[in-house]
Amino acid sequence: MQLRILGCSGGIGGVHRTTAMLLGERTLIDAGTGVGDLTYDELVRIDHVFLTHAHLDHIACLPMLIDTVFGARERPIVVHASQATLGVLHQHVFNWAVWPDFTVIPAADAAMLRFEPMETGECREVDGCRITALPALHTVPAVAYALDSGDATLVFSGDTADCAEFWQAVNAIPNLGTLIIETAFANREEALARLSRHFSPRLLLDALKQLARSDAVEILITHLKPADHALTMREVLESGADFRIARLEQGQIIRF
């Protein structure tokens, strides 16, 4: 199974793209601005979008994706997310005021967009990959995802603060090979990280002590803010010598 990193930044500007990952050829994990770098033909092939939560940096390109492929395909794009996240999308995005409601276009029984609620612990299978929603802790309802190819499992934290339930779920995965986890703020902004329920390097390294079999898991850092990305990553590496840690890179392809 292949995961292509379309965007993994905590902001925009220049080369920075916000969170979006392409699983295989037909499935997006989040739909931030990185989706905009896909070709038209690649966009038309998207059948599924799994959202961690409803914040703009993770959904920014979803409305444009639906609009762009409209008329080029007959089957709907299915968005999988918690009922709370889907409710936000329907109320605040696909509401005719911000964007057309593609759940009823061109007709309610033949819409281009379909919402499928997916709560923590629930699974979907897409192209041979088993996707499970895991607990996460953010300022809005959020989930993480475990992607199980059958050979190995990759976990993506989405946006989260330290959460015992998250680590319990992660440690229950027998074939975990890769953990993509966010670190949005440098240590000097730890108070802001706590308030916004993100990690700073110090908070992350404290939380990683809960990770079992850490020597067997590659840890990739995502969601670095552009202003402090180098500082934040340096702080992670300086304190994380006991872990296999690297920076997640836009354009990176992970095979698992």
Task: Write up this protein.
23% of the residues lie in helices and 27% in strands. It has 256 residues and is of the alpha/beta class. The protein has one domain: Ribonuclease Z/Hydroxyacylglutathione hydrolase-like (Metallo-beta-lactamase, Chain A). The chain has a 7-stranded mixed β-sheet with strand order 6-5-4-3-2-1-14. Strands 7-8-9-10-11-12-13 form a 7-stranded mixed β-sheet, covered by helices on one side. It is globular. The model has no long low-confidence stretch (mean pLDDT 98). This is 3',5'-cyclic-nucleotide phosphodiesterase. GO terms for molecular function: 3',5'-cyclic-AMP phosphodiesterase activity. It comes from Chitiniphilus eburneus.
Number of strands: 14
User: Treating each run of at least 4 consecutive H or I residues as one helix, how many helices?
Assistant: 8
Percent of residues in beta strands? 25-35%
Please give the CATH class.
Alpha Beta
| Dominant shape | globular
Quickly describe the structure.
With 256 residues, the protein is of the alpha/beta class. It has 8 helices and 14 strands. The protein has one domain: Ribonuclease Z/Hydroxyacylglutathione hydrolase-like (Metallo-beta-lactamase, Chain A, 4-Layer Sandwich).
List the helices and strands and how they pair.
Layout: E1 2-7, E2 20-23, E3 27-31, H1 40-44, E4 48-50, H2 56-59, H3 62-69, E5 77-81, H4 83-92, E6 113-117, E7 123-126, E8 129-135, E9 143-148, E10 153-156, H5 164-171, E11 176-182, H6 190-195, H7 201-208, E12 218-222, H8 229-239, E13 244-247, E14 253-255
Parallel strand pairs: 3-4, 4-5, 5-6, 10-11, 11-12, 12-13
Antiparallel strand pairs: 1-2, 1-14, 2-3, 7-8, 8-9, 9-10
Helix pairs in contact: 7-8
